[in-house]
Amino acid sequence: MSETAALNMQDIPQRQLPEHLELQRTRVFCKADAPAHISKKVMGSTACYVDVQKESKLATDDLKDLITEDVEYSGGYAGIGFDNSLQVDDFRRDFKVEIKNLSMDVIEFDMIGIDASLANAFRRIMIAEVPTMAIEKVLIVNNTSVMADEILSHRLGLLPIEADPRLFDFLSENDTPNERNTIVFKMEVHCKRRGPRLAVKSDQLKWLPNGSELLMESPNPSTKPRRFTSFSCSQASLPQISGRPIGMKHLDIIITQLGPGQSIELEAHAVKGTGKVHAKWSPVGTTWYRMLPEVKLLKEVKGNDAEKLVKKCPKKVFDLEDVGHAMKKAVVSKPRDCTLCRECVGGAGEENIALRRVRDHFIFTVESTGALPAEVVFTEAVKILEEKCERVISELS
Amino acid sequence: MGYREKDSVETHNNLAKPIKSAVDKFALLPEFLKVRGLVKQHIDSFNYFINNDIKKIIKTNDRIVIPQVPSLYLRYTKISIGKPVEYLEHHAEELNPHMCRLSDRTYASPIKVDIEYTRPNQTNKEYKKDLVIGRMPIMLRSSSCVLSGKDEAELAKLGECPLDPGGYFIIKGNEKVILIQEQLSKNRIIIDTDSKGRVNASVTSSTHETKTKTVFFIDKDKIYLQLNQFSKPISIMIIMKAMGMENDQEVMQMLGRDPKYGFLLLPSMQECRSEKIITQKQALEYLQGKLANLSSLRFEINKDDRVKKILTNVFLAHVPVKDGNFRPKCIYTAVMLKRMMDAVLNVETFDDKDYVGNKRLELSGQLVALLFEDLFKTMNSQVASRMEKAYDKASRSTPLDFIHYMMSDTITNGLERAISTGNWDLKRFKMNRKGVSQVLSRLAFIATLGYMTRVSPQFEKTRKVSGPRALQPSQCGKLGVVDVEDLSGEELHAPDSFLKFANAMRKLRRKSVIGEFVSIFVHERQDGVRSFDDFVREGLIEYLDVNEENNALIALYEHEIPKDGHDEDNADVQKSSITHIEIEPFTILGVVAGLIPYPHHNQSPRNTYQCAMGKQAMGNIAYNQAYTLLYLLVYPQRPLLTTRTIELVGYDKLGAGQNATVAVMSYSGYDIEDAIVMNKSSLDRGQIVVKEIYSNETSDRIVRPQNEPRKQALDADGIAAPGQIVRRHDILVNKQSPRNKRDRITNPMALKDWYTSFLIDYAPSNVSYKGPEGETTVVDRVMLYSDKDNKMCVKFIIRHIGDKFSSRHGQKGVIGTIVQQEDFPFSEEGICPDLIMNPHGFPRYYKPNNFLQIFFFFFICSLFSSLHYRPSPNF
């Protein structure tokens, strides 16, 4: 396109960026070599002016190697009359959560219209700050297995417990363990002297709703010996718990193996905690998000090229469509499955495909360990973030 | 008939069809290891000693004669070494290795001999069977060991790890390896220059009777013989004459017709003439005058005989003299002279002492044999001198009997002392070596294996000589060249590369059939029963030593064999000139270096570093663990990417590491994700307590604790219980010793009543834990046993948790920081790495494409789990 003098330039509509700038604002671009954020931390309007003047050619070709930063500044496009700031009303109107997939342990949902910083906050909270119950203290009465006490205890700690952590309090250092903050399990396994080896599985841990059965050794024999916990009533009688007895989430996790004649007798005390302290309290195996991939065919890809393209993609994002006359063209059938591996833009035909990510559309996956249902993990995370925000507000006011 | 013909033609075509590569070649290697094994050289040499060598030693020294009374003698008729047992007071206890390790005993068998002997003034011979003359330490897994031929379950019953290679001894509870000693070859002419710059030819003769050294040297153009038995060097021509070669011309002709040799010999001839020695008789007389006054020659009565004896038994002792025929010796002398003269004429014919072909590896069996021979002779002379003394004594209450003077201590103690200290001090053989045996390192399984295959070179480490330290081209394929530990020991890798795959081979090649391998391999499948030994017997597989290697051209890969016609890549190699093909190229590396995947893609020092570090790898050491210090990994894993070597040595069954998900990115340094990944090492420490029994029938006792401080770890039996937490100064055994250990107690019953005797008779002699302050440790295991004096012993294994950590593949890593999972990067699929490596840490010496290939391989191999590393010809 021929160059246009600044004075002869056409007017730019307000509140609407030209297409290439709108893409630059809302998308991440992926080229064959690496994802490139084709935009600039635009300082005032001058750069924009240059951009507009030189059209998208310059922006995409010349600047892409130089600039990889985002336009986050609210006045980034002010020079052309565009307000890049976030409005609460807009957020309210545009923000959406769509559940795509929900099973016992896994939830996949889309969170649309939110900034990456908030999405990441949810991820971090789910991993590290949503509390669960996990075995923290193991009282070993007898352990003649080959596994050392501390390793056995460590393995017990990692078992997910099916107990709603919202019903329990944190056990702080000065607290005595009681029915509100401690869950007690007991395990007594013995392998017969004559017989095969015995696999000790998690179902061997039995819930003791009345608390510990072991007596503390007291220095003075005359006083009545105390137990390790002081429950005022049975946990089973608590209204919240009575319906759903507490136990292990999975009953078939192998803890250790016992040889003939070996036995284990122990009591395990589970308390409430967060993943920040130890990964055993994390309610999720992992949780992560990715931005929604956007795959666009810029030109029509037909015949051999189309078949090649379909083959190239490991995730089967493209499909063939009949266009008559025994011709087939490639269409993007499952853009969501794209992992942005960039196989399709490598080699010949690179210019036919645009690979982008939508900057404010997050696909979240939460894989729960089972201690809490996956969807509850997320709602808990929202509550925790809310609490934090309120704390900040109350501190400020 | 026609049908058959067609069939056979087809089969023939099928057989003659060229195949691209002999893929199954590798299958020979496990077979080879079955026959030879990694530490088999040790075991075989010891077996040879036990089964053959010891009999020869006995045979050559089978008589003890009292010189004064020739009728009084003792003769050994048979020797045998039984299974390891220990004779206690009333019964024989069968030993097994693990028992010896625990109770600090020596794993040894009695040496039994059958003897016949005479008594003074009696004509008939006395016979005695199975007389024990000492105890022989037994090498584990040798033919005399209780472990030989046992399967895995039986080994487990004996407390033995099935993966343990054996090949070492247990002396007083310590595992000792006799290192392979590298030595100059025996019975081989070595041409060299001595410290004065004289040309020097030496032969170390070694036979069962004697071990001597003969040196020829050239001084001022004359050639001399140096022999300890003569007081000064003797001109070589005199020796020739003394051996019956009176004619100078004959000597000349033996050297060769070239007049150059004549000129070089002339000065020696002239010297001989000037001494006026022409006949054999004159020469012998001359030699008599030069005899050194050596004590060992004192007994010889006839001087003339002495010279002849020296010439027969000392001078070039390995060349036999039959019926006084010195001819072979003369020829050998002439050969030596000729080699010397060649060296004078052409400097290149000097021998290189470091050349592997001029060296022999001396194995445990030979070393123990030397030791035994020395001790056996010592014992015999002791018996003789004792008998002599006793005979001289006029009054005897009992009749003189050899049996009374056979003492078993000499051999038992001598063997034990030498193997446990490593000092081979054998005056008889002029041998004084230190550090021959070493304690077997048990810190890692690979370290143990590495020890067993190490070669100790024969030169003083203090000497600043570069020659022996430098790598010799001839070592390639014989000694592992990568793993040279601070240049003092070299690893002997499995001698598998001693064998090359004989290329079927010459005969077929002459017919220019291309697929020589085909017929062999198809054939193998047809019978399916041919063993490795059969291949060797049929000449399909050959063992080549360094010297023979010089006459062979060995291809590493089939594709290196040029095709018929002209191959541009290998234009300098003719197909017909290749004689052998290596069974597996990776056998060039030893055990330790064999653990590295893709070593040929590594920068070479990385491989060397990895060799040192592989030995430090934590993991399981063996199935049985009772060593004083050991490191264990809580969750060892089998590597996803293995090498053939790892599988061959069984390392994948033990595991010494974990497979980690690694992200290569610049983050905050070298980072590690989770406590689970880190939670690993335990360091265990052993302590020994001995319950003494004193001479006055009192004994130590271990009593029940009474709620005292520092005794919380103790059980009711007074010994710390497994699983108890112990801190520094905590008491492990509540032991008490009697105050009075000497005087006889009138009423031993008083001791039993410990309430009354508690303060009176006993003083506490507790054993406490002496670990570091502030660390919490746990009693892992308590082992009770009785030692060889039937004293009760208690051993503790004490465990504490460490957090030492290192990364793999020749790159040491330090934990820079530990980062929470939520702060870690994650991938599109949600994968969170276990650790992050900084890309700046990678060696910069790679070409980028090499670099990528390596990563590609790692990637592939981790995807498809147990892929084998196999160098592809294209890379």
Automatic annotation (TrEMBL), chain A:
Keywords carried by this UniProt record: DNA-directed RNA polymerase, Nucleus, Transcription
UniProt keyword annotation of Nucleus present: yes
The UniProt record lists the keyword Nucleus: yes
Main subcellular localisation: nucleus
CC per GO annotation: RNA polymerase I complex; RNA polymerase III complex
Subcellular localization, as worded in the UniProt entry: Nucleus
Pfam families assigned to the protein according to its UniProt record, in alphabetical order: RNA_pol_A_bac, RNA_pol_L
SUPFAM superfamilies: Insert subdomain of RNA polymerase alpha subunit, RBP11-like subunits of RNA polymerase
GO biological process: DNA-templated transcription
Residues annotated as domain DNA-directed RNA polymerase RpoA/D/Rpb3-type: 106-395
Stored Gene3D superfamilies: DNA-directed RNA polymerase, insert domain, RNA polymerase, RBP11-like subunit
PANTHER family named among the record's database cross-references: DNA-DIRECTED RNA POLYMERASE, DNA-DIRECTED RNA POLYMERASES I AND III SUBUNIT RPAC1
Family (UniProt): Belongs to the archaeal Rpo3/eukaryotic RPB3 RNA polymerase subunit family.
Protein name: DNA-directed RNA polymerases I and III subunit RPAC1
Lineage: Eukaryota, Viridiplantae, Streptophyta, Embryophyta, Tracheophyta
TrEMBL record, chain B:
Catalytic activity line of the entry: RNA(n) + a ribonucleoside 5'-triphosphate = RNA(n+1) + diphosphate
Gene Ontology process terms (BP): DNA-templated transcription
Transmembrane domains' residue ranges: 851-869
DNA-directed RNA polymerase subunit 2 hybrid-binding domain mapped to chain residues: 592-844
Residue ranges of every copy of the RNA polymerase beta subunit protrusion domain listed in the record: 37-402
Enzyme Commission code(s) on record: 2.7.7.6
Catalytic class of the enzyme: transferase
Positions of the RNA polymerase Rpb2 domain: 186-362, 532-585
Keywords recorded for this protein, A-Z: DNA-directed RNA polymerase, Membrane, Metal-binding, Nucleotidyltransferase, Transcription, Transferase, Transmembrane, Transmembrane helix
Keyword Transmembrane tagged: yes
MF annotations from Gene Ontology: DNA binding; DNA-directed RNA polymerase activity; metal ion binding; ribonucleoside binding
Family under the similarity heading: Belongs to the RNA polymerase beta chain family.
The protein, known as: DNA-directed RNA polymerase
Protein's organism: Dendrobium chrysotoxum (Orchid)
